[in-house]
Protein backbone atom coordinates (compact mmCIF):
# COMPACT_ATOMS: atom_id res chain seq x y z
CA UNK A 1 0.00 0.00 0.00
CA UNK A 2 2.48 2.60 1.05
CA UNK A 3 5.93 2.97 -0.39
CA UNK A 4 8.90 4.39 1.43
CA UNK A 5 11.22 6.81 -0.35
CA UNK A 6 14.85 6.07 0.39
CA UNK A 7 16.83 9.27 0.44
CA UNK A 8 20.56 9.74 0.12
CA UNK A 9 22.48 11.62 2.78
CA UNK A 10 22.36 14.96 0.98
CA UNK A 11 18.62 14.74 0.45
CA UNK A 12 17.97 13.85 4.08
CA UNK A 13 20.14 16.77 5.19
CA UNK A 14 18.21 19.12 2.90
CA UNK A 15 14.88 17.87 4.20
CA UNK A 16 15.98 18.34 7.80
CA UNK A 17 17.09 21.87 7.00
CA UNK A 18 13.61 22.53 5.61
CA UNK A 19 11.96 21.13 8.72
CA UNK A 20 14.16 22.98 11.18
CA UNK A 21 13.84 26.21 9.18
CA UNK A 22 10.12 26.08 9.92
CA UNK A 23 10.68 25.69 13.66
CA UNK A 24 10.63 28.92 15.69
CA UNK A 25 13.87 29.78 17.46
CA UNK A 26 13.48 29.07 21.15
CA UNK A 27 15.83 31.90 22.08
CA UNK A 28 14.42 35.32 22.86
CA UNK A 29 15.31 38.09 20.42
CA UNK A 30 17.71 40.75 21.64
CA UNK A 31 15.91 43.37 23.70
CA UNK A 32 12.82 41.21 24.32
CA UNK A 33 11.42 41.37 27.86
CA UNK A 34 12.03 38.36 30.08
CA UNK A 35 9.10 36.00 30.37
CA UNK A 36 8.65 36.86 34.03
CA UNK A 37 8.73 40.63 33.59
CA UNK A 38 5.70 42.85 33.94
CA UNK A 39 5.86 43.82 30.27
CA UNK A 40 6.04 40.24 28.95
CA UNK A 41 3.33 39.33 26.48
CA UNK A 42 0.48 37.54 28.18
CA UNK A 43 -0.74 34.19 26.86
CA UNK A 44 -4.16 34.78 25.29
CA UNK A 45 -7.10 33.05 26.92
CA UNK A 46 -8.61 30.42 24.65
CA UNK A 47 -12.35 30.48 24.07
CA UNK A 48 -14.26 27.67 25.72
CA UNK A 49 -14.77 24.69 23.42
CA UNK A 50 -17.47 22.10 23.85
CA UNK A 51 -16.40 19.34 21.49
CA UNK A 52 -18.78 16.37 21.28
CA UNK A 53 -17.54 13.03 22.58
CA UNK A 54 -16.02 10.77 19.95
CA UNK A 55 -17.54 7.28 20.14
CA UNK A 56 -15.02 4.52 19.38
CA UNK A 57 -17.78 1.89 19.43
CA UNK A 58 -19.50 3.72 16.59
CA UNK A 59 -16.26 4.02 14.60
CA UNK A 60 -15.60 0.31 15.16
CA UNK A 61 -19.08 -0.54 13.83
CA UNK A 62 -18.41 1.52 10.69
CA UNK A 63 -15.20 -0.45 10.16
CA UNK A 64 -17.00 -3.75 10.67
CA UNK A 65 -19.62 -2.76 8.11
CA UNK A 66 -16.94 -2.10 5.49
CA UNK A 67 -15.20 -5.40 6.22
CA UNK A 68 -18.53 -7.21 5.95
CA UNK A 69 -18.61 -6.31 2.25
CA UNK A 70 -15.43 -8.36 1.83
CA UNK A 71 -12.32 -7.11 0.03
CA UNK A 72 -13.04 -3.76 -1.64
CA UNK A 73 -10.91 -4.27 -4.73
CA UNK A 74 -11.65 -1.78 -7.53
CA UNK A 75 -13.78 -3.30 -10.25
CA UNK A 76 -15.49 -5.89 -8.05
CA UNK A 77 -19.12 -6.07 -6.96
CA UNK A 78 -18.06 -5.73 -3.31
CA UNK A 79 -16.19 -2.55 -4.16
CA UNK A 80 -19.20 -0.99 -5.90
CA UNK A 81 -21.58 -2.00 -3.10
CA UNK A 82 -19.33 -0.47 -0.45
CA UNK A 83 -19.04 2.75 -2.46
CA UNK A 84 -22.82 3.04 -2.56
CA UNK A 85 -23.06 2.44 1.19
CA UNK A 86 -20.35 5.00 1.96
CA UNK A 87 -22.07 7.65 -0.15
CA UNK A 88 -25.47 6.92 1.41
CA UNK A 89 -24.01 7.02 4.92
CA UNK A 90 -22.26 10.34 4.38
CA UNK A 91 -25.38 11.79 2.75
CA UNK A 92 -27.20 11.27 6.04
CA UNK A 93 -24.66 13.59 7.64
CA UNK A 94 -23.99 15.98 4.74
CA UNK A 95 -26.87 16.03 2.21
CA UNK A 96 -24.76 17.41 -0.64
CA UNK A 97 -22.34 14.47 -0.56
CA UNK A 98 -21.16 13.57 -4.06
CA UNK A 99 -19.12 10.85 -5.73
CA UNK A 100 -16.38 11.77 -8.18
CA UNK A 101 -16.42 8.85 -10.62
CA UNK A 102 -13.61 8.24 -13.08
CA UNK A 103 -11.64 5.51 -14.84
CA UNK A 104 -7.89 5.23 -14.40
CA UNK A 105 -5.23 3.00 -15.91
CA UNK A 106 -3.31 0.88 -13.42
CA UNK A 107 0.34 -0.21 -13.61
CA UNK A 108 -0.76 -3.47 -15.27
CA UNK A 109 -2.72 -1.52 -17.93
CA UNK A 110 -6.01 -2.57 -16.39
CA UNK A 111 -8.79 0.02 -16.48
CA UNK A 112 -10.09 0.59 -12.97
CA UNK A 113 -13.12 2.49 -11.71
CA UNK A 114 -12.50 5.23 -9.16
CA UNK A 115 -15.15 6.47 -6.75
CA UNK A 116 -13.87 9.36 -4.64
CA UNK A 117 -16.61 10.16 -2.14
CA UNK A 118 -16.80 13.76 -0.93
CA UNK A 119 -18.90 15.19 1.91
CA UNK A 120 -18.92 18.95 2.53
CA UNK A 121 -20.02 20.36 5.89
CA UNK A 122 -20.85 24.08 5.82
CA UNK A 123 -20.22 24.16 2.06
CA UNK A 124 -20.65 27.95 1.97
CA UNK A 125 -17.66 28.57 4.26
CA UNK A 126 -14.48 29.80 2.58
CA UNK A 127 -12.26 28.63 5.43
CA UNK A 128 -12.02 24.84 5.09
CA UNK A 129 -10.18 21.85 6.53
CA UNK A 130 -9.73 18.61 4.59
CA UNK A 131 -10.00 15.23 6.34
CA UNK A 132 -9.30 12.21 4.16
CA UNK A 133 -8.62 8.48 4.04
CA UNK A 134 -8.65 5.73 1.43
CA UNK A 135 -11.38 3.10 1.45
CA UNK A 136 -10.31 0.42 -1.07
CA UNK A 137 -8.32 -2.68 -0.08
CA UNK A 138 -5.24 -4.45 -1.44
CA UNK A 139 -5.95 -6.94 -4.29
CA UNK A 140 -3.35 -9.44 -3.07
CA UNK A 141 -1.76 -10.53 0.21
CA UNK A 142 1.77 -10.07 -1.09
CA UNK A 143 3.29 -9.82 2.40
CA UNK A 144 1.71 -13.08 3.58
CA UNK A 145 3.16 -16.59 3.41
CA UNK A 146 0.01 -18.19 2.05
CA UNK A 147 -2.84 -17.28 -0.30
CA UNK A 148 -0.64 -14.48 -1.57
CA UNK A 149 -2.68 -13.97 -4.74
CA UNK A 150 -5.95 -13.48 -2.87
CA UNK A 151 -7.28 -10.05 -1.81
CA UNK A 152 -7.26 -8.95 1.81
CA UNK A 153 -10.00 -7.49 4.00
CA UNK A 154 -8.08 -4.32 4.82
CA UNK A 155 -9.69 -3.67 8.20
CA UNK A 156 -6.84 -1.46 9.33
CA UNK A 157 -5.35 -0.63 5.94
CA UNK A 158 -8.38 0.99 4.38
CA UNK A 159 -11.38 0.73 6.68
CA UNK A 160 -9.97 2.16 9.93
CA UNK A 161 -9.44 5.73 8.76
CA UNK A 162 -12.83 5.73 7.06
CA UNK A 163 -14.49 4.48 10.25
CA UNK A 164 -13.01 7.36 12.24
CA UNK A 165 -14.08 9.91 9.62
CA UNK A 166 -17.62 8.55 9.40
CA UNK A 167 -17.96 8.95 13.16
CA UNK A 168 -16.63 12.50 12.93
CA UNK A 169 -19.14 13.13 10.14
CA UNK A 170 -21.93 11.90 12.40
CA UNK A 171 -20.78 14.27 15.13
CA UNK A 172 -20.58 17.21 12.73
CA UNK A 173 -24.18 16.59 11.66
CA UNK A 174 -25.42 16.35 15.24
CA UNK A 175 -23.30 19.24 16.52
CA UNK A 176 -22.98 21.78 13.68
CA UNK A 177 -19.91 23.97 13.51
CA UNK A 178 -20.13 27.77 13.28
CA UNK A 179 -20.82 28.78 9.69
CA UNK A 180 -17.35 30.28 9.33
CA UNK A 181 -15.60 26.88 9.16
CA UNK A 182 -16.23 24.14 6.63
CA UNK A 183 -15.02 20.55 6.80
CA UNK A 184 -14.56 18.32 3.78
CA UNK A 185 -14.37 14.57 4.26
CA UNK A 186 -12.88 12.93 1.17
CA UNK A 187 -12.66 9.15 0.87
CA UNK A 188 -10.07 8.31 -1.77
CA UNK A 189 -10.44 5.21 -3.90
CA UNK A 190 -7.91 2.94 -5.63
CA UNK A 191 -5.03 3.71 -3.30
CA UNK A 192 -3.79 0.16 -2.83
CA UNK A 193 -3.73 -1.16 -6.40
CA UNK A 194 -0.05 -0.57 -7.04
CA UNK A 195 3.36 -2.13 -7.59
CA UNK A 196 6.13 -1.31 -5.11
CA UNK A 197 8.69 -0.98 -7.89
CA UNK A 198 6.71 1.39 -10.11
CA UNK A 199 6.56 5.09 -9.32
CA UNK A 200 3.11 6.64 -8.88
CA UNK A 201 1.35 3.28 -9.24
CA UNK A 202 -0.35 3.64 -5.84
CA UNK A 203 -2.80 6.35 -4.76
CA UNK A 204 -4.62 6.54 -8.09
CA UNK A 205 -7.78 8.01 -6.59
CA UNK A 206 -6.00 10.86 -4.84
CA UNK A 207 -3.86 11.49 -7.90
CA UNK A 208 -7.03 11.92 -9.94
CA UNK A 209 -8.78 14.08 -7.35
CA UNK A 210 -5.78 16.35 -6.79
CA UNK A 211 -5.60 17.06 -10.54
CA UNK A 212 -9.39 17.29 -11.00
CA UNK A 213 -10.69 18.99 -7.87
CA UNK A 214 -14.37 18.35 -7.17
CA UNK A 215 -14.97 22.11 -6.92
CA UNK A 216 -13.11 24.44 -9.30
CA UNK A 217 -10.56 26.44 -7.35
CA UNK A 218 -11.08 24.34 -4.23
CA UNK A 219 -8.82 25.31 -1.35
CA UNK A 220 -8.41 24.09 2.19
CA UNK A 221 -6.34 25.68 4.94
CA UNK A 222 -4.77 22.28 5.53
CA UNK A 223 -5.48 18.58 5.30
CA UNK A 224 -5.10 15.48 7.46
CA UNK A 225 -4.89 11.98 6.00
CA UNK A 226 -5.68 8.95 8.16
CA UNK A 227 -4.11 5.63 7.20
CA UNK A 228 -3.91 2.49 9.31
CA UNK A 229 -5.11 4.18 12.50
CA UNK A 230 -6.69 1.24 14.32
CA UNK A 231 -3.97 -1.20 15.37
CA UNK A 232 -3.66 -2.17 19.06
CA UNK A 233 0.06 -1.32 19.06
CA UNK A 234 -0.16 1.74 16.81
CA UNK A 235 2.67 4.24 16.72
CA UNK A 236 2.22 7.51 14.88
CA UNK A 237 5.66 8.91 14.22
CA UNK A 238 5.90 12.24 12.40
CA UNK A 239 6.03 11.27 8.74
CA UNK A 240 8.83 12.99 6.84
CA UNK A 241 6.83 14.19 3.83
CA UNK A 242 4.35 15.69 6.29
CA UNK A 243 7.19 17.47 8.07
CA UNK A 244 8.48 18.76 4.76
CA UNK A 245 5.16 20.07 3.42
CA UNK A 246 3.18 20.97 6.55
CA UNK A 247 5.34 21.09 9.71
CA UNK A 248 2.93 23.51 11.37
CA UNK A 249 0.08 21.03 10.99
CA UNK A 250 2.19 18.17 12.35
CA UNK A 251 3.07 20.28 15.38
CA UNK A 252 -0.56 21.26 15.94
CA UNK A 253 -1.88 17.69 15.79
CA UNK A 254 0.91 16.02 17.76
CA UNK A 255 0.83 18.68 20.47
CA UNK A 256 -2.91 18.22 20.83
CA UNK A 257 -2.65 14.43 20.91
CA UNK A 258 -0.12 14.67 23.71
CA UNK A 259 -2.19 17.28 25.55
CA UNK A 260 -5.18 14.92 25.52
CA UNK A 261 -3.12 12.09 27.00
CA UNK A 262 -2.23 10.13 23.88
CA UNK A 263 1.52 10.60 23.97
CA UNK A 264 2.10 6.85 23.65
CA UNK A 265 0.53 7.06 20.18
CA UNK A 266 1.61 10.48 18.90
CA UNK A 267 5.38 10.17 19.07
CA UNK A 268 7.46 13.33 18.64
CA UNK A 269 10.04 11.66 16.43
CA UNK A 270 10.27 11.54 12.62
CA UNK A 271 9.82 8.39 10.57
CA UNK A 272 12.97 6.78 9.21
CA UNK A 273 12.02 7.80 5.67
CA UNK A 274 9.34 9.73 3.75
CA UNK A 275 6.24 7.70 2.88
CA UNK A 276 4.40 7.85 -0.42
CA UNK A 277 0.72 8.03 0.45
CA UNK A 278 -2.35 9.97 -0.67
CA UNK A 279 -1.19 13.12 1.12
CA UNK A 280 1.86 13.39 -1.14
CA UNK A 281 -0.31 14.06 -4.20
CA UNK A 282 -2.61 16.41 -2.31
CA UNK A 283 0.49 18.41 -1.42
CA UNK A 284 2.13 18.25 -4.84
CA UNK A 285 -0.88 18.71 -7.11
CA UNK A 286 -3.57 20.46 -5.07
CA UNK A 287 -1.02 22.51 -3.09
CA UNK A 288 -2.90 21.90 0.15
CA UNK A 289 -0.50 21.40 3.10
CA UNK A 290 -1.50 17.93 4.23
CA UNK A 291 -0.10 15.50 6.78
CA UNK A 292 -0.34 11.73 7.20
CA UNK A 293 -1.28 10.09 10.49
CA UNK A 294 -0.06 6.57 9.76
CA UNK A 295 1.06 3.56 11.77
CA UNK A 296 4.80 3.20 11.22
CA UNK A 297 7.22 1.61 13.66
CA UNK A 298 10.66 2.72 14.81
CA UNK A 299 12.06 -0.09 12.67
CA UNK A 300 10.36 1.26 9.56
CA UNK A 301 7.50 -1.26 9.36
CA UNK A 302 3.75 -0.86 8.84
CA UNK A 303 2.83 -3.70 11.20
CA UNK A 304 2.86 -7.50 11.04
CA UNK A 305 -0.63 -7.56 9.51
CA UNK A 306 0.19 -5.18 6.65
CA UNK A 307 -0.86 -6.60 3.27
CA UNK A 308 -1.65 -9.97 4.83
CA UNK A 309 -4.82 -11.86 5.66
CA UNK A 310 -4.24 -10.90 9.30
CA UNK A 311 -5.56 -7.44 8.46
CA UNK A 312 -9.00 -8.30 9.79
CA UNK A 313 -11.06 -7.04 12.72
CA UNK A 314 -8.50 -8.53 15.11
CA UNK A 315 -6.17 -5.77 13.92
CA UNK A 316 -8.53 -3.08 15.25
CA UNK A 317 -8.43 -1.59 18.75
CA UNK A 318 -11.17 0.69 20.02
CA UNK A 319 -8.60 2.32 22.31
CA UNK A 320 -6.52 3.39 19.32
CA UNK A 321 -9.60 4.58 17.45
CA UNK A 322 -10.50 6.68 20.49
CA UNK A 323 -7.04 8.27 20.59
CA UNK A 324 -7.19 9.31 16.95
CA UNK A 325 -10.86 10.22 16.87
CA UNK A 326 -10.80 12.22 20.09
CA UNK A 327 -7.76 14.16 18.89
CA UNK A 328 -9.27 15.03 15.49
CA UNK A 329 -12.69 15.87 16.89
CA UNK A 330 -11.16 18.21 19.44
CA UNK A 331 -8.99 19.77 16.75
CA UNK A 332 -11.94 20.52 14.48
CA UNK A 333 -14.08 22.10 17.19
CA UNK A 334 -11.19 24.15 18.55
CA UNK A 335 -10.45 25.38 15.03
CA UNK A 336 -14.07 26.47 14.71
CA UNK A 337 -13.55 29.08 17.45
CA UNK A 338 -9.86 29.76 16.73
CA UNK A 339 -8.88 28.11 20.00
CA UNK A 340 -5.85 26.19 18.81
For the record, give the distance between the C-alpha atoms at the N and C termini, rounded to a whole number: 33 Å
DSSP strand tally: 10
Number of domains: 1
- What structural class do you assign from the helix and strand content? alpha/beta
What is the radius of gyration?
20 Å
Instruction: Enumerate how many helices there are, as a single number.
Output: 9
Q: What's the CATH superfamily, by name?
A: Zn peptidases
Q: Pick out the low-confidence regions.
A: 5-40
Shape: globular
CATH architecture assignment name: 3-Layer(aba) Sandwich
Helix/strand order: EHHHEEEHEHEEHHEEHEH
Strand content: 15-25%
In CATH, the topology is named: Aminopeptidase
What kind of sheet is the major sheet? Answer: 6 strands, mixed
Mean pLDDT: 91
Helix content: 25-40%
